[in-house]
Design brief:
Layout: H1 2-12, H2 18-27, H3 37-43, H4 51-89, H5 91-94, H6 102-107, H7 109-120, H8 123-128, H9 132-137, H10 160-163, H11 175-185, H12 199-205, E1 218-223, E2 226-231, H13 233-241, H14 247-255, H15 268-273, H16 282-292, E3 304-305, H17 311-323, E4 333-334, H18 359-362
Parallel strand pairs: 3-4
Antiparallel strand pairs: 1-2
Helix pairs in contact: 1-4, 4-11
């Protein structure tokens, strides 16, 4: 469903420039992303830093990549029969679009599309929204693919993981059969998977951002009614279930800037599970990015968190990402503020004394 909807947006979207419109109609890239990977691990009772989390991470993105490829191939397959018949039936119309170079007749693709629909008065034209590049470049079973499919790695049976030099080992999907279908029918979209930052939508839907760990176990949310401090909902539920949640524990988490590593009476597993991103080695995040990389045909917005970055640390991270084969080493580098704000929300400890206060003075 995601691939179908994003593919449709390409045809009905508004484009601010001709170059973006032309490129999108010729190559039809879409970008499927994710949000809430940390939520998944929390619900499955898996620590972000565990080997099990790395395996789940790979399985999720293998599934997304396979489903996206399969959907894009099915769209091309559904279009192929009608496109092949329509091209032959209206050949005299398409021949009027006489442009020798791809870039030239791409520039008149929208005009030609409207012209064809007007002359042919064909429901198929309005349904399939063909462009001249597709009519001139594709035929037969491949007639429903994107215009520049022929010559692409996928047309030669090479998918993203092949170009990474790896092979899926889960055994969940028949990749050979999918490759054969793609070579026969093509793909409707040149690019499919592109995990992006999801700051706004994650906040709206109540999930953690994209594939990132929890940045804190306490968040501040600002609305028209004011600013509120919210705890990590999964941690809160577990602490309540264990009978540990109280005002003092909340103040302890605030005092430690969203960390629970200083809490007493909490299991080592819970502490490991709810480590914040500042408490996780950045090389682990890079390794997880490399694990899912073979199933990402565009790139991924990989943010890194370093409390006090220096040239040595950043160089080491860049080289580690490069050696792992990542296309994007760092998207944003996050660092902690040099000075921490005063914790006004922490209630000061009560002073217990046996001395009675003078009511007149205290008034």
């Amino acid at each position: 469903m995601v691939a179908y909807n994003l593919n449709r947006i390409i045809d009905v979207n508004f484009y601010p420039t001709d170059k973006t419109r032309i490129s999108n109609l010729l190559h039809r890239p879409i970008g499927i992303g994710v949000q809430g990977l940390a939520d998944v691990f929390a619900l499955m009772d898996v620590a972000f830093t565990s080997e099990q989390a790395r395996e789940i991470n790979k399985l999720i993105f293998e599934t997304i990549y396979h489903a996206a490829l399969e959907s894009s191939m099915e769209i091309a397959k559904e279009r192929a029969g009608k496109m092949h018949i329509m091209t032959r039936y209206h050949q005299h119309i398409f021949q009027k679009v006489d442009v020798p170079h791809l870039d030239k007749f791409a520039k008149v693709d929208w005009v030609s599309r409207e012209y064809i629909a007007g002359v042919a008065d064909d429901a198929w034209v309005n349904e399939l929204l063909p462009i001249p590049a597709e009519m001139h470049s594709l035929e037969g079973d491949l007639a429903g693919a994107y215009s520049s499919f022929i010559g692409s790695p996928a047309s030669k049976g090479q998918l993203q993981f092949d170009m990474w030099g790896t092979t899926p080992t889960s055994g969940r999907y028949d990749w050979s059969a999918l490759k054969a279908d793609i070579q026969q029918y093509g793909l409707r979209n040149s690019l499919l998977v592109a995990p992006m930052p999801t700051a706004s939508t994650s906040q709206i839907l109540g999930n953690n951002e994209c594939f990132e760990p929890f940045t804190s176990n306490l968040y501040s949310r600002r609305t028209n009614a004011g600013e509120f401090v919210l705890p990590n909902k999964y941690l809160l539920a577990e602490l309540i279930e264990l009978g540990l949640w109280n005002e003092a524990l909340k103040d302890n988490i605030i005092l430690n800037k969203g960390s629970i590593q200083q809490l007493t009476g909490v299991s080592a597993h819970l502490k490991e599970k709810y480590k914040t991103v500042w408490e996780i080695p950045m090389k682990h995040l890079i390794d997880m990015a490399a694990d899912r990389g073979p199933y990402i045909c565009q790139s991924q917005s990989l943010n890194l968190w370093v409390e006090d970055p220096d040239y040595k640390a950043l160089t080491a991270l860049h080289f580690h990402a490069w050696q792992a084969g990542l296309k994007t080493g760092i998207y944003y580098l996050r660092r902690k503020a040099k000075h921490q704000a005063q914790q006004f929300t922490i209630r000061p400890p009560e002073q217990h004394t046996d001395k009675e206060d003078c009511l007149m003075c205290s008034s």
